[in-house]
Amino acid sequence: MSEVVYEETATMIAAGELQSFVPFGREHCRNHPNAFNLQLRELQPASELWSSDGAAGLVGSLQEVSLQEREREWWQLRKGCTGVKEEEVMFEEELYAAGNVVVWSQGSRTQASSVYKAFTVDSPVQQALWCNFAVLQNNNDEEVEQTICIVQSSCINVHTVTGKDFISPLPFQVSNVWATKFGLLLERKISANDTQLNPPGEPLPMVFSMLHPLDEIAPLVSKPSSQFDSSTVHYMSDSTMKIVFTCCQPSILVSYDTVQGTHTVWALRKVTHDECSTVLRYPTEPVGKPLGLMASNFLTSHLRNISRLDSPGGSGTELKSCALSSPKHYNVLRSNPNRAVTSSPGAHSRVHSPNISNMAALSRAHSPGMAAPSFSGASRFNTSFHSPSSRGHHGLLSSPNSTVNETVLPPEMEPIVPDLCVEQLWTETVAAGCHREMSSQASKVFITSDLCENRYLCFLVESHQQLRCVKFIESNESSQLIFPSVTTISAKDAAPLQISARQNIDAMLVLEACGSLVLYTGITRVSKVFVPGLLSPSFSLSNQRPQISTPVESVSTPANGVNRHIQRLSEVPAQDFMPSPVSEPKGLNNKHHEASFFEDHIFQQATPCIHGLRDPVCNRVTLELGGGAMLRISVPEVATSELVQKCLQAIRFILPKDAAMKVLVKWYNIYNAPGGSSAHAEWSLFVTCFMTLMGYNTERLAWTRHLHFEVPLSPVIAAKKARHSAQGSEEDWDYLLASRYHRQIISQPVCASVESSDIVATEMGDLSSASSPGSSLKLESSAPLFPHIPALFYVLHLLYQELQLDELHRAKASSLVCVLQQLARDLQLEEYVDLYWRDYPSVMSGFSKCCSIDHAVIEQMQRPSFLLSKPPCVFSWLSSCLRGDENTPFPYLPAICQRTRLLVLSYALYIFGDDKATSSSESKYLFKLSAGQKSCASEPYLRRQSSVKVRFSSASLAEQLVVWLASQGFTLKDLESVPFGVALPIREAIYRCREQPCSDWSEEVCLLIGRQDLTKQAHKMTLAKSKASVSSGLSLEPPVATEPDEEEDGMSDIIQEVTGLIWSQDLRIQEVRRLLRSSGPVRVSVVQLPEVSDHEYIEEKENKLLQLCQRTMALPVGRGLFTLFSYHPVLTEPLPVPKLNLTGRAPPRNTMVDLNSGNIDVPPNMTSWPSFHNGVAAGLKIAPASQVDSAWIAYNKPKSPELANEYAGFLMALGLNGHLTKLATLNIHDYLTKGHEMTSVGLLLGVSSAKLGTMDMSTTRLLSIHIPALLPPTSTELDVPHNVQVAAVIGVGLVYQGTGHRHNAEVLLSEIGRPPGPEMEYCTDRESYSLAAGLALGMVCLGHGSNLIGMTDLNVPEQLYQYMVGGHRRAQAGANRERHKSPSYQIKEGDTINVDVTCPGATLALAMIYLKTNNRSIADWLKPPDTWFLLDFIKPEFLLLRTLARCIIMWDEILPNSEWVKSNIPQIMRGNFDASEDINMETMAQAEDYITAGACMALGLRFAGSANSDAFDCLYEFARTFMKMMPFAGTAAVSASLQQMGYYNLQTCLSMILLAMSMVMAGTGNLKVLQLCRFFHKRTGGEMNYGFHMAHHMALGLLFLGGGRYTISTSNSAIAALLCALYPHFPAHSTDNRYHLQALRHLVVLAAEPRLLVPVDVDSLKPCYALLEVSYKETKWYNETTVELMAPTLLPELHLLKQVKVKGPRYWELTLDLSKETHHLKSILSQDGVLYVKLRAGQLPYKDDPQGWKSLLTTAVNHRSSGVTAFKPETISTFTSNPALISFADFFCKTSEGMKHRKDTHMFSAMLYECVTQECPEMLPTYIAIEQAVSALQRGDLQQTFPLWQLRLVVDLWDSRMLRGPANSHNTLLKSEFLPVMKNAVDVALDGWLKDSSSVLRSYMWNQVLSKDAQSIMLACFLVYRSVPCFRSTQLKSCSSFGDLLSCSSQLEIPLRDLLRLAPVLLGSGSPSLLGFPLQAFSS
Fold this sequence. Notes:
By secondary structure, this protein is an alpha+beta fold.
């Protein structure tokens, strides 16, 4: 019989899915607009196009074009791989090239093709291919860039999938390009000149590599494995070698030697350092003249063409040198062994050469967009390879534009270092002796593998019609490939296929010489392939003519168009060259073509014959037929049903390779016989095939006979069976009728039943005697799988256990169980049979037949060691795990039983609490089967598993479990398919983790635990760009303007939704907008008195307007802070800048008042600085995260010159928000050369702010030009405006902030005291320059204190002290000595320091250098003097600065109370004054007030942004005190204090205190501060000048910084910025820059940081309120404290915090632990502070329910009992947004008319209520499943015991939780009374059955035969639920008492609870009560 089974020759399979194939690109190109137009323009000279009769010319050219196109059409297909996962749909990608167009399209079986990308290039496409380049990232990881490369004659265009484009010019003509793992390989075309080189001259390299489009093209190095000298490494310069194939995995290439006629396989790898150095050494001429350098340079000059004569015309005089044409000079490139080798100076690596390679490296590192320019166009490649040589005999180098004089070599030429090396692995051996016909080049090469993972490299040699298959094996270190054997298959064509994508089963389709298709796997022939609709060649009449010698391919299919112009290949002109290597060999016997062309053609029309195969993708392939038609067919899959696939996988895993191969081949033929199988029959077919192979006679087994077939099948006919099919053919029937088994079919009725089996006429070889049904069935021991039955049985049993764990596959388990029970019976494994019966009692009761196995042959069966008598059952394993019993490891099949492995390890980890279960002690719980053939699929799996690092061991088990599951790729979708009982512990772990997840979990973990708020957070980066983030999309419309024509005020971008939540009670934001509005006219109300004339009245109004304008001009500074970073600009529109409106309207008639009327004097240039500030304010709106580029910045440049100041401000603002770094250097240069003062100031400050603290060199150069002191002393004097110098000096401070840079510090130190020059230079506004130098020095040495490294000789602190208090000027040292030789002619200072100039800068420099160092000795220098005499010498302003400086040095001593502030006032002022002393009260009052103001300022800096209430109260008190002194409207009497102080001084102090207050309350919008600001806003006129308005509105801006999203930091850098910006001397008028440059006021932005946390509901994406719990770290001022804040709120500074937590009960808790890392929270805050929160079910947001009275739980709180009854399902929608729950309530919980009679609705409502209140809606299906299982048991209509297994697992989990005590119960998911009720119902049902049928149970236990009645189902249920083991032991019979029973029970592993139920039955008494107790007493 077995011979029959293996009659492979007769088999044939049918191909499916025929469709005619036309490349999609061809269709697309037909309609593509550019295809013709581009060429038309090139073909026609312009004159002809314009001529009147140009039409004729056009037509001609059109024909020409289409001809050319048709010839150059070319395409390739591949499997789609752009980010599609394996499970998803497979699709094909096509790359089509014709003419100048390349089309990349995608399509699948289910979807039509569509264009993915189409490219049109300038010249005809020679080749197009896909290639992946590896790009090195910053962290040394390689990222693969998928690209498409289009090869033209002069360059390669590379387009990446991500949208980058590169053009790489080609330095030579390329014949072919190949994609490899590393990049592209280019084969150089051999030009005619190459051949004319004399033999001694060594050829140039032939193969070059390009690792990235921006890298240089480098020659390839080869390392042959020759016997003589293995170390020789040389360039691949052998022109006889052609590459025919490259491959990425493994990285190899196959080449063909045109002389030897052999193929060679090479390994392609990166070149090693030694090989590089070997190749780059140069030989010398025997003469001794070192010309090797020349030769190498010749190559270099060719590739780089650095020759000076680059212009096409040369240099006028051509160098008539020998042009290297003589072979003597053109030296050897590779070192020959017989030559002396000398090292040459050119052999260093290319890093040092300042040539193009560095440019390429540079541009690759920085800007991918700049690729092409860095090559200076293609002109440098315009070398001899292209231009037709004018003097052919001059050899290679003769083109006029690249003549290189041998003596005049450019010095920087040096060789190009190779990147890749090929190492020879294997070469074909040629049989010597016999005269061989030279084998031609392989036309096709591919890699395939057989069913058992042997891999083959196959190449098709068309001349011999052979397919040579070379087997290869990766050696242990996997770097080497070993090629053990070669097999030859005769074939005309071949193509690799994949017949099962899931299991990676490869096959190959071979077109035999006779024209028939045969399928092979590896080198094993599987079967012929029958293509319906194509006549098989064996039936054609014309088959007699000898056809082998005729290459049929010459018929003009598109691929062979070249051969129609029959000519020698070498003469084919370049533009006709076909990129496909296939076409070349076919031209070798052209003589024959002409003769046989016509006859062939006639013959083909008679029968469409297959000429070739092309484009294999997965299991589809294109057949090329005669006449150019193409047909796409698919070779059928190994199996479509998942169950069959899994079984085959298991069989393949366990069997030895050869046996597995036989089974799979056999099955493949049976399954895919022509006629097509129906899906439902696949399993039956598989069972029949499988059982037959094991030796069963499937006809005689009742159950296999009933499998669904249309005809009963026998083993013989199984190879070819007739089935109904849509596309069968006559031959099927002929074949069938001719078969040996035909008569048996006739003699049998179609549906044979059990009775009729005896009339089977058996004509089988062995079973000759007719057997009656009574006789025993025997197994055929000669069957191929007979020896392996036990192993196969065990594998399938494990597969069965795996299927049980998946709800979606469980139905298949019942099919599998039939096969298993048969095998188990025959192997006499009683316990297995019992297990199957327990699982499927209703199915199993029908089976009783056994097949006996002869004892004689039983030894032939290999019983594997792992086949145990006790069957592994996964449910009982998990159950005993829950009960805490010890378990043996559970067996599993790697890569097949994944679910088993996952769940077993999950239980081990979570239930046993073994946290090493998933790593080191996996073997404790799992026993991994390994036999026969290792499945390669398991390898990547294990690797993937090991790469996951489960970080924390100390974390709770639940967290570990969840993290591990997520790392294994387990998702919620998978969890849904896990049976409910098994899944419960996992659900519980998820539930626990959901309460308090870690903030640093990966996205997968968050999804698994159902915290979308966290996944959303992880996805944040993408969100901000889409319109869903708070900043851009969530904002409501800005409030509608009251007047329709209202001007844009620049403040409409403040996010209403967020501010509305922060300040929900009032309209303070609108008020701030009103106060800061500078775009509308102001109201000028002046009452006209009777005696005032009209003209005077107009003047009065204009004077009033002038006062009001002082205020208007100061507003932009505040507005910039208010709208900070609130706007994302649209790149196609310019930035809207609100205009600065300086007009007024006078009531009552609203007449216009204007300053330009000429009635009053208006200061010149009054508006220049205010409009600068206006520009800054507009620019500061742009958020740092916006997309801004250089072009947009330039695009905003205004046309009119009067807006130049605004644009200057805009540039500065762009620097402050970091966008100025994107401005191209060229533009910066442009702006500076204009010489516009404001632009220079804005640009210099902007660029340096953007480069804060980077020490950026280019910025330093930029700044140095503007600072005379940084230029060399001899340099020309540049006339730099004073303000620009000041800005540049501050710029140096910013760029070098905190670096302690020695040179700059020295220069700045001397600049503080820069004396005025002789010619009035440096004489005006000296104060601001000196201050700037001091501030800059402070920034450079910021916070360094006494640790200034390398600056001790400068004596910085002493020098500064001298600047502060005065004294003799020191001699200028160093470079600037010359500058200051002669004193100023205008200003007489003498040789003492002018303290008035130098003091402020020096004081602040000291303060910044010693900032926060608490250095008391320095602080004491700054104390105010303690005698009246000395006090008189110091300006009160300087006292303010000194106090401020002293306090911030003693940072830690600042305390937020008024005592501390007053402690700064010296003792002499605080005591009682002796009247006799001559005290100047004015001095005293001013000193006291300024010192107070300085201390308040320090207090403000210390508590900046903290909203500290003590600090605020203290400052508010002082502000009130000062306010009382001020004279306000109506108070005629001037107070004494005001007389002493002076209005100006009081106002200055008050402004400083106001600024200090707003620093403390920055971003909070505090009302008290707002009232003060508004009060000062209203005060105009009098002494209230421009500077004070600026201070007050800055305070207002700080108070609402960034619309409440930003606040101020107290880092060193921020303090420095604040000191620059809030310098306490404000300008007197709008053009005043004498003491402090106005532009510096904006540096306050550098101190701002986002700290607003906005909770956003993850479901509605709306901002909402949420309760936060913020924990502070312990400090020396306070212990660790926790405060509750209602978000949205500003967080304190992050370094002070320990953790931030979203508190329940409304929202899911979420903890951000800052003790671990602050990075996560920082990224949240920087992206608009959006923190996603998830509302719990049954809760309402705070906005809708502020007190929490409406929530769902409150009903339950009020009346504990009636929680469920009071719950109305209709109201569910108000408490949960989960759509599944809402629809469940709709359909199942409402008592509609039709549902009145159902009792379930109440039950369902109760379940729903519980799920919602317990916050676990995903438990609803579990509740329902439990309820369904119990009710089915009560009704008694269970068909299988699976639900009881699940109930039992649920009960076990419940018990294990309850046993640990009630303390653990709060963690369990099933909290309510639901489970006890259900448990009780099961107990009642089973006890009731036990009472009636104890005899059945007893007879089962005593192993008696059971009657086949319905009892068996209940019996199985009882056994499963009560975990009764399989009793086959007699030890229980001896138990006479309960005590004996108890002692036995420990061995039996029966829980005590269940043992009590069994005791009466076991001990023989019929009554189910024991020792007088009713059983119920024990049940709970």
